[in-house]
Write the structure tokens for this entry.
Amino acid sequence: MIGYPFVRYVHDRMAKEITDPYYAALAHAAGQAFGVILFPRNATVFPIYELTAIVLASEEANAKDNVIEG
């Protein structure tokens, strides 16, 4: 699997090296999105990390609205 090392790098190393929770969630989302190519089950986890990033980027009062609007 040529793509597997890249997926592991994005998901594990990048996400763990980033200290900002918003950018870490985006790195996890990217790793999961790339992983869908190799592991279709990742499609169920990708949106969770993406929604986490949206919530983390939002002010607490607006988080729900931003998630609904996408």
User: Anything to note?
Assistant: The chain has one domain: 4-69. Residues 4-69 form one domain.
